[in-house]
Amino acid sequence: MDELVTQVIRRLFVPLEASGRHVHLTKAQAQSLFGHELTPKRPLSQPGQYLANERVTVIGPKGEFQNVAVLGPEREEAQVEVSMTDARALGLDAPLRLSGNVADSPGATLVSPLGRICLTSGVIVAKRHIHMTPEDAVRFGVRDKQVVRLQTYTKRPLIFGDTVVRVSPAFETYVHLDYDEANACGFRPGDLGRILT
Amino acid sequence: MDELVTQVIRRLFVPLEASGRHVHLTKAQAQSLFGHELTPKRPLSQPGQYLANERVTVIGPKGEFQNVAVLGPEREEAQVEVSMTDARALGLDAPLRLSGNVADSPGATLVSPLGRICLTSGVIVAKRHIHMTPEDAVRFGVRDKQVVRLQTYTKRPLIFGDTVVRVSPAFETYVHLDYDEANACGFRPGDLGRILT
After folding, report:
1. How far apart are CA B22 and CA B56, in angstroms?
2. Complex ipTM tops 0.90
3. What residues does each domain of chain A span?
4. Could you write out the DSSP letters of every residue in B85-101?
5. Does residue B171 have a pLDDT over 80?
């Protein structure tokens, strides 16, 4: 019976996740900051993605954050994903973007015990989005890049507009919020959302 | 024409405001922290309320915030209003409450150049709310303590659920969000919301 309930829930709702500030690096950057490629500490919800053992300090014109998570594997281009709260603390006017779209974004300095890198761009506020498997996309009647509303079943319930669905066989189905959004809706691990199209 | 547009907008929408972390004090507490009662620096949107010249450091078990705004006039009971992000940084499990309801909330230490006060309770995360004049309550068809949804016309549009309307002739009509909520919806000064009942 519990298994049936779980299956029904998975067909009606999408699990929510909160992403803290984090950094993506290229292999060359990982090498120069740590002397080696990134090493996995624990897997993330998206298949193949992991939290690295390595961490960096992110420095902006007005402030810095120490001990910031680095996510692996390495990418073709560096990216620093922060919340609007973080961007303000760093003193950066970071644009609201989907991950991977860093054109014309401000840079920051990344520091490790071994080295220092000045990024000329790459700092963005991640646009809220839903990672989704093709099977779930069929089930929920949505397609890649579709913008939906998302109702949260959380302590401070709300309906997020402008939520982009991203469909790929490489994904697991999860909503990704940043900490401003997670706190605004009173998110706690295990909370669910419902897609409104 | 512009005046007419402004009037129509005021009848359809409610202006949004973001409240940063702040402290309310009793007269005795202001006296012991500053040697005098609070002095106004600038008025706030709510009639008679003001940002004080005086500021305090708020200290919790895990962190502190310096230079925190104190709002006047003094109240019957001290209160520290923070965002969930702030509460986490302070290391406090602050409950989600309407202003004035501080029973069973955690305390914090308040420090000024002159003194130090240990509050045994008073730290809350303010529940989002709409201050409203009785005239606007009639116009919008809502009553005191009614819970409504609020659609934001902001950069990251969303619909807040669980938004409490507070009606009083002592109020001006404004939605009060904390910075988690303001950043989650991409609030910028001048942005408007619409009440959904």
Report:
1. 9
2. no
3. 20-125, 128-196
4. HHHHHHT----EE-TT-
5. yes
pLDDT tens digits, one per residue of A65-118: 999 999 999 999 999 999 999 999 999 999 999 999 999 999 999 999 999 999
Protein fold of A128-196: Barwin-like endoglucanases (2.40.40)
CB-CB contact of A103 with A121 (8 Å): yes
> Which tens digits make up the pLDDT trace of B29-86?
999 999 999 999 999 999 999 999 999 999 999 999 999 999 999 999 999 999 999 9
Tell me the Ramachandran region of residue A90: left when phi exceeds 0, alpha when psi lies from -120 to 50, beta otherwise: alpha
Count of alpha carbons within 13 angstroms of residue A7, beta-carbon side = 4
Query: How does the average pLDDT of chain B come out, rounded?
Result: 95
> Under a CB-based contact definition with an 8 Å cutoff, are residues B135 and B94 in contact?
no
- Cβ <8 Å between A155 and B85: no
Q: How far apart are CA B187 and CA B117, in angstroms?
A: 34
Q: How far does B84 lie from chain A, in Å, by closest CA?
A: 6
In chain A, how long is the greatest CA-to-CA distance?
A: 56
Q: How far is A168 from chain B (nearest CA, A)?
A: 24
Q: Quick check: A155 and B96 CB within 8 A? A: yes
Q: Please check whether residue B91 is in contact with residue B65, taking contact to mean a CB–CB distance below 8 angstroms.
A: no
Which of A21, A65, A85 is the mutation pick for testing B, counting most B CBs within 10 A? A85
Chosen from B185, B187, B191 to mutate, greatest number of chain A CBs within 10 A: B185
Q: Which residues pair with B196 in a beta bridge?
A: B149
The size of chain A, in residues, is 197
Domain B13-17+128-196 sits in CATH 2.40.40.20: yes
User: Which pLDDT belongs to residue B1?
Assistant: 57
Residue A26, H or E segment: none
Residue A181 near chain B (CB below 8 Å): yes
Question: Given the DSSP bridges, would you call strands B79-82 and B22-24 parallel, antiparallel or unpaired?
Answer: antiparallel
Q: Which chain B residues have a beta carbon less than 8 Å from that of A83?
A: 183
Distance of CA A4 to the CA centre of its chain: 30
Residues 39-78 of A with CB under 8 A from B: none
